[in-house]
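Q: I have 327 residues here and want to know how they pack in 3D. Can you give me a structure?
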Amino acid sequence: MRFPRLTARGADGDKGPMAPPAPVPATVPPPSSAAIFGAAMVAVILFALTAPLTRAIAGSVDPLLLGMRPVAAAAAAIPLILILRLKGPRGGHDWLLLLLSAGGSFAFFPVVFTLGQAMTSATHGSLIQASMPIFTGLAAAIVDRRRPGFHWWLGAALAFAGEGVLVFFRDPADPGRQASLTGDLLVLLASAVSASAYVAGSRLAGRISALAATLWCVGAAGLALLPFALLRAAHVTWGNLSLGVWVSIGALAFGPNLIAFIAWLWALSQGGVQRVAVFQFAVPPLSVLIAVVFLGEKLTVSLMVALACVLGGIALARYRPGRRRDA
């Protein structure tokens, strides 16, 4: 026996179910373009400050200890993981991705980069670091077993030519040889390893979210470096450090590792990769500008040639014929 469906007559005479209408979910307004632009520029500025700040205080702080700054960042990352209840790696494959990403980008890179930056100029360090997208693309191609296109190879060759100009054509007027070949090679090694580790980080982010991957990697790297940092910190006379040095240490510890990454990932997710990723081209010239204006470093012809080759090579490597541009 079929029972009739209970209905109620509305004011207009139509029939409808007696159950109350479902509540309409509140829609969250999308972020404005100004907010997305602001977040992207915050990340760009913090990334651009890395080389100049490191160079500026390398003579006042033990470079090896300064390179272990993820320890301080982990003091903020671990509580955020607990407060936000961010899930970590689930299986052996995820833990391997975490090990590669945390070890390469958040442990090896800051230590080796800081050691190299202490032996070279901020302009050299900034331009060598600018080649990281090429290393990331090469590592991704190897992992995915795909052959990059003609434009990628041409762009990579142009970018590496710029790095060659920077590394091997030394400025004879460099006072005290601040831009040493050893320092340049250490920065190049750190950039290559970190950029390759980005591939593992991107895969981990696809499995547990970008924010969770970033904080878990920072926390893991900080815990791994903690014993070594405590040993080095015992030999530092902390009372002799000026306020400016303390501010610089804090900016390096929490800026590029936490604030910049979170702001950059948010801008990418809200504004779209195609629209926001182009902001990364502003990092090398901005970093060079900071070094020239505030550190008094010279903008030589070789630096300008290297900057043009690196940025042009990255732009060419990113070019995809026939790809539709975002509005």
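Q: Anything worth noting?
A: The chain has one domain: 32-318. Strands lie at 7-9, 15-17.
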